[in-house]
Design brief:
Helix content: 25-40%
Number of helices: 8
Strand order of the largest sheet: 7-8-9-15-11-12
Distance between the termini: 51 Å
Largest sheet: 6 strands, antiparallel
Strand content: 15-25%
Number of strands: 15
Shape: elongated
Structural class: alpha/beta
Order of helices and strands: HEHEHHEHEHEHEHEEEEEEEEE
């Protein structure tokens, strides 16, 4: 069904929504590969695509100015057994540990590195054999010196400081996580990463909730990796595409407060990001005409609007009045000159 799929139908809305990287699921737990692998599964014939979906997306992603990453389910492959999962314990027991699978998975990852030189090497669940995993990571960094490796080759080892990782990946989790490493929250638009026919629009984050989540993550020092589940023909269902479009509309005006920033000190409970020269204060669900008191000194600029006139302040800081008839927005962003730590 993917014969006529155009990867630009993904990369264009992703880039418009502010994405800086795209990570594709090259092989999920079912063991099916989305590239024409030279390492076929020994237990299932023709268990990969004829079209190089991974390569086509890699080219389109880079053409659009974004980084490209490859997700690989190293810890589960149901062609090697393990089905009948009805609990977390059963899932752990389903991880294949045979030498046959270790060699199979390692060959796949080496093939992904050789074919696509991904900027992000994103393993899931676990990886069989610590020494094998370490050798793969070393090889990856030799081929892609700037490349980023996530923590799921060995979650426990990373947590104990005994295994290397460049980023930790909390999933549908409270933020920020307890870590000294960079982190990236991953989750789907709804309760599933892929397309789930049982989900309706009511099950997905609204555009407002998505913007608020992005602000929460960025203001806490993280990245957001948002799952987008396409149909078999590669189309992104409208209930997901509409959310991305809402996020894109907000990012067109307010992206400066997200990209290239770091966490700042909260301003009256409001999320804050900073650069070396500017401080961005997020006003969630702004009320038209409301007076907002801020720490620091003016002038104050409302992104997408311009400089705001100052109002009398009761706190000795600066106060401004939001426009009385602004376009509806899940969050207004106020910029003050002078960054902070």
């Amino acid at each position: 069904e993917s014969t006529d799929w155009d990867p630009a139908t993904w990369t264009e809305p992703f880039a418009a929504a502010g994405a800086r990287s795209v990570v594709i699921t090259t092989k999920h737990h079912d063991g099916f590969c989305l590239w024409p692998t030279a390492v076929p599964t020994p237990h299932r014939a023709d268990w990969s695509t004829e079209r190089d979906l991974v390569g086509d997306l890699a080219a389109a992603t880079r053409q659009a100015g974004m980084r490209f990453g490859t997700y690989y389910s190293g810890g589960l492959d149901w062609t090697f057994g393990g089905l009948g999962i009805d609990s977390f314990e059963a899932m752990i027991a389903a991880i294949p540990r045979s030498d046959e699978y270790r060699r199979h998975a390692a060959a796949h990852v080496r093939e992904l590195i050789a074919r696509y030189e991904p900027d992000v090497l994103w393993n899931d669940i676990h990886f069989p054999g610590r020494e094998t995993a370490l050798a793969l990571i070393e090889h990856f960094h030799e081929v892609v010196p700037h490349g980023v490796v996530n923590d799921r080759f060995d979650l426990r080892g990373v947590a104990r400081g005994e295994f290397p990782a460049d980023v930790v990946t909390p999933e549908y989790a409270a933020i920020p996580p307890e870590t000294d490493l960079p982190w990236e929250l991953c989750r789907g638009s709804g309760g599933s990463f892929g397309l789930n026919d049982a989900e309706t629009a009511d099950d997905l984050l609204t555009g407002r909730e998505l913007v608020h989540l992005l602000i929460e993550v960025v203001a806490a020092g993280g990245n957001l990796l948002l799952g987008s589940g396409p149909a078999a023909d590669g189309s992104i269902p409208s209930i997901q595409a509409n959310r991305l479009a809402e996020l894109a509309g907000w990012m067109r005006t307010n992206g400066a407060a997200v990209h290239g920033t770091r966490p700042g000190t909260s301003d009256g409970g409001r999320p804050v990001t900073v650069t070396d020269t500017d401080r961005y204060v997020f006003v969630l669900d702004p009320e038209p005409g409301a007076i907002v008191e801020l720490e620091g000194e003016g002038p104050v600029e409302l992104l997408g609007h311009g400089r705001l006139d100052e109002e009398p302040s009761t706190s000795g800081s600066v106060a401004v009045r939001l426009p009385r008839a602004p376009a509806p927005s899940p969050a207004a962003v106020l910029r003050l000159h002078g960054g902070d730590a």
